[in-house]
Every structure is written in C-alpha cells, then in structure tokens.
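The methods section describes the discrete structure representation at length, but only in general terms. What matters is that the chain and its backbone geometry are given together, residue for residue. Nothing conveys this as quickly as seeing an actual entry. For illustration, here is how one protein appears when written out as sequence plus structure tokens:
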Amino acid sequence: MLQHEDDPSPLQNLETAAVHCASAIRLSPRESRLHFLLGLVLEEQHYATEIYGLQRKGGGSAPREEENHSSVHRALMKYLDAWSLSPDSWEYNLHVGRLLLLQGRGRGALQHLQSGLALRPLHPALRFFTGLALLQQEPRASEDTEKEAALFLQQGLEHFVSQRCSKSWKEQDPPETLSGLNTEFLRGLLTLGELQQRNTRSGMSAEQVYHTAAVLAAQSVSLCVCGGRVGGQLEWVLLDAHFALLQRLDQQGGGQAMVVKRCRALTDLIGLSSIPPCQELLDLQEKTCRLAAVTSPRDGHALCLLGLAQLAQYDNSPDSEKSQEVLAEACLSFQASIELEDQTQGGPPPEQLTQQTWWQDRQNSENEKSAKASTARPKGVKGPSHPGGAKRGARRGRGGPSPVRVTAAVTKAPAPIRGGKAGRPVARGRAGAAAKPGGSAHASKAKLNKSKQACCPGTVETAEVPEAPVGDGDAASCPVNCRSHVPRLGLARALSRSADTREEAQQLYQEVISMAPGLHEAYMELVQLLEPSDPRAAAELYCRFPLRPVAQQSLHDAFITGEIVRLLLALDQYQHPQLGPSLVAHAKVMGLSSIEKYMDVLDAKCRTELLRSVYAKIHDRQEDDQELQEFFRFRCWI
C-alpha cells in the first residue's frame, strides 16, 4: 500500500478538487462542465484506491468495497447530471454509457453510446463501447449485429495500437478511455477475439487479439500495486486470454510439446494469481490440466498436475454429491503418475486415466462426432485412416498418445468470455460467485497454495531428450518421466482425506520423507495423522527433521522446533536430547517471548539446570557469566 506522510497526498488532492468542484456547482448549478469534472474526480478517487492502493493519512485500513462502489455510482450520477444539462454532448454520452455498461445495464448504455456516436461517428472509444453494448442486448445479437460489433471493436483496437506505436505517444494523465488499465477495454478485446474466432474476417486474427489482451493485462497487473477488485479483474483477463490462446493452439494442431508447455505455464500462472479461490478458478485449473493429460497422456508431470487440480476440487466442496468420485479420480491420476516413472512418454494412455469419468465422456463424445462425420461423408470419398486425422497422426508419430485417444483437440466451443459485463469477474474473483460453504474458500486456498508449492518447475524434473522428427516412431526419442516425491505427496494427501486409507497415507508420507528429507509439509501432515493415536511417534518424527544451523533457519524450521518442544513437554520428556537445542533454536528465530510459557513449565518442574543452559545459549554466553549468574540467582535457578 502507498501511504504518504507528507501533506498533501494525491488522495487529499483529489478530495480537495472534489470540494472545489462541488462548491463551484453550488454557485453555477446549471454549468454542465462542472458536474462532468466532479464525476471525473470521483472516478479517479476510485481508481486511486483500487489500482495504486492510496490511503487517507492515518487510515488504518484500505477503503471498504462499498465505498469504492459508491464512488463509481456517484461519478455516474454526476455524468448523468452533466448529460441532462447538455444532452447533445458526445463526451457526456460516452462516459454515461461506459459506466452503465460497467454496471451491466446494456440497454441504457446503448442508447447513450448511439447518441454520442451520432454526434461523433468516427470517435474510436464511442465505436468500441457501442460494439460492446450491442453484444449485451437481449435477445442474443444476430449475425449482422455481431459483424457490426466486431467492426467497431476492431476499429477501437486499431486506434489503440496505432497510438501506442506512435513515437510521440506518452502516457496520458488521467489515462485515456481506451487504456490498458481499463478492464472494460480489455474485456472487449477478449470478446473481439471470440468473434474473430467464430467468423473469419479481415483485420487482426483471434490469436493476435488474444496476445494483445494478454500483454496489456500483464503490464496492467504489474502496475496494480493494490491487489483489490480491479487487480482481480485484470488477473482474470490475463488468465482468460492465455486459456483462449491455449484452446486455439490445440484446435489448430499446434504440436504436442507446445500444448503441454502452455498448459504447464498456465497452471503455474493460476497458482501464482492473487485471485481468492472460487469454483470458477478451480474449474479453469482443472480444464487446463485435463487438456495437458489428453495431449500427452503418459506425461507424469501432467498427470500429477491433474491430480492436484482434482484434489483441490474435492477440498473446495467435500460434501458435494460427486466429491467421492472426484477424490477417487485424483488418486487415479497420482497413481498413474507414479506408475509411469522411468518410462517414456510415448504409448497408450495408462489404465488409471482411461477409467476416469471425464475421459470416458470425452471419448464417447468424440466417437459420436466421428460417427456422424462418417455417415455424412459422400460415398466413394475415403476419409483418414485414423479418427484424429493426418494432423494428429504426426503427433502420435513422435511417441504421443496411441490411437485409443480419438483426438487431442478441444472440440467444444470456447468458454464464454467473462466480459461482456465488466463487473462479472469482480463477483467471481472477489466474492467467489460460485455458491459454496463459508469455510470452503479457506480450505481451497490452502490447496491452491500447496499445488503451487509442490508443482513448481524445479520440483518435477523431466529428462530432456531431443525430439525426433515428425513421423519418427522411435519410442526412445521421447522424454522420460523421472522419479519425484510430488505425486506421492499428492496421493498421500488424497488418501488422508478418508479414514479408511490413512494407514496407506502414512506409508506414502514416509516414502516422501525418504525421497525429500527436507520437505516441511510432509512432516507436518504426517504428524497430524500420528499425533492423535501415537504422540511419541509424532515427536520422534519431528526430531528426525534435518534442521540447518540456527543462523540459517527459516520460519518453517521454527515451526518444527516449536512443535518438538510442545510435544516433548506434553510427554514429560525433560531429558530428551532435542529439548534444549529446540528451545534455543526456536527462541533465536522467533524471539525470547515465544518460549516464555515453556520456560514457566520447566521452572515449575524445577528443571533449573536445563533452564540455565538454554538461557545462556540463547544469549551466546557461558553459564558462569557474571551477569547471567545474577539473573539466575534472581530467578532462583541457583
């Protein structure tokens, strides 16, 4: 958050400007320009707090979301006041229509935007937002209306690109209506990409539009220092643009390696996003992981990512009707990843993958489409020898999926662009538009964080072997799945969700610890399973953790040492060799106050020798130090 100690702060300047405009309005209430300027100031206050995180001096917390909505609503009211006094102003019609569009009031927005367009037919922003408004009308826009809207959107984008590519271009203050920080504009680009994808037209292709939206969204996210409502909208645009590019790449047969690479990158991006967990984010993560598994069904890393996504779905709604089915599929994905270790990525899909419901549904759908296509083909016309066609055959020739998989392309229509209404991502990202139990968001966040930590690029390694030329079926040229603790950790987590399989989960946790002795999460989660029934074994497990020197210990290490002390004192193990060193290490990392309650327990048990030793080591002194001796006498430890 940006806080300004010296007066005046930018936010105070905006408040002063608002006061001056309001005073001027009282003197000249019929002056439309004054109402319009006050609306601009109010809208700028909203973006100052949402994008740049500005706070009032002395403010203990960020402005509430209700206040930000109120600023936008008041800005709209002032724009309407200005328009009512000068209805023939194209500028007032533009801003009224734009904010009405932001609120999802497409019919009223279209009226104002068309009025402004009649006054300024060539204005790029008017044409762009008119195109968006046309697509939000009910009933659904006709094909001719879509063509007109696409033309308007294309012209707005071309104007924006030409302005940004100009050598004389400078960032405007305040920014122009068509700006990378304007989520309405970025959502409009995604809508344009969807229209271009459905119908071949002149101008920029759908891929170029999606790339432009992704680049602008990434730049805007880096400028949005406050991870608030607008920041969540911008991140949604970034994720949607990359997912649309991924779908286009797969539909066009962009190559197995490239599709899998993009799937992994998008999965990492989802894990790094600051969007609060919601059902739609989890669905996007699972769709991406499924596409990677379909494209390369014997890729152990892809199957591991799929299992993590399925486990996150279960944790988000463990009481749903299909929760047990989702959990079982997560276990199958992890088991397939483990089974394929030290094997090449070429060959038929593993049995654990083909048993999953979503895979079978996909296969049935593809078989039905292939059957319809074969019946519709005229007699005498010979089709391709494989259901996937020649383009997919080349992919199999590089050691890809076997003919069991009908096709790797995502044949369903792309997901609807989350924009038509710019406000929709807000409800989805900030409040979690998907209805779910109140506590599910917290559990889901934990699982997303675990997925992000466990599946970073450095965790699961793949032996990189040069790809064979297209058409070379030599399986030895395929990459080899390496052994990793990550799928075992995921499987252990999945098995620990059920009381019947917790013993298997404990064995897997032990295997993970043997493969990655320094992984904190494995120890913590295994102790949670052991402590209720065998607290002594839980304490001994923590004592086996390979702690680094105290000067290099992190907060995670401090958690381990604190748990060692807690468990040993609960078991009355005052003579345990790890008790003293753990007390010293925990105090040096977390501070002396963090062990005061433990020191009181030892004092009550008259463990004065241990207390003297611990206190001296914490302060890096000898026990016979004169000052320490006086302190020990004061505490009656001597």
Observations:
- Strands lie at 462-463, 480-481.
- Residues 312 and 447 are 5 Å apart (CA to CA).
- Residues 10-86 form one domain.
